Amino acid sequence: MELNFLAIVVAAIVPLLIGAIWYNPSVLGTAWMKASGMTEEKMKTGNIAVIFGVTLILSFMLAFTVNGMVIHQVAAQQLAFTNPDAESFQAFMAEFGNMHRNYGHGALHGAIGAFFFALPVLGINALFERKGWKYILINVGYWVVTLAIMGAILCGWK
């Protein structure tokens, strides 16, 4: 099973695109700023090129990870590498082929990943940072939508 590098590149851009919409002041940006304690003055600080560049690198890392999470055939292939009898992967593919390789299945697994990984991680951090539930829900909502779209792209784009 080969990686679809074009799908990974497109999926890696999704966090930036969804973030531009989600955190826009006309959508949830104003509520997020209030919940996080962010100010307009602080938003103007920092090197925006570095912020976006590092975000894109981290998004590529995330896209590679989500790829393995949403495509069952990738997990089956990884198991074949741990077993000298590589026929097990061939038998799996003969029986199941591209079963569940569609956009909806990828979106489902992306959203599940957000609920069972992003929510606990962000929730724990936010609780210790003394942020409220509004802050947690805005950020987790962003990751549910983002990972669902990334999962859909990666799983459905064959």
UniProtKB/TrEMBL annotation:
UniProt keyword annotation of Transit peptide present: no
Residue stretches spanning the membrane: 6-24, 45-64, 107-128, 135-154
Keywords noted in UniProt: Membrane, Transmembrane, Transmembrane helix
Tree of life domain: Bacteria
Coiled coil: none
Protein name, entry field: DUF1761 domain-containing protein
Species: Winogradskyella poriferorum
Native organism taxonomy: Bacteria, Pseudomonadati, Bacteroidota, Flavobacteriia, Flavobacteriales
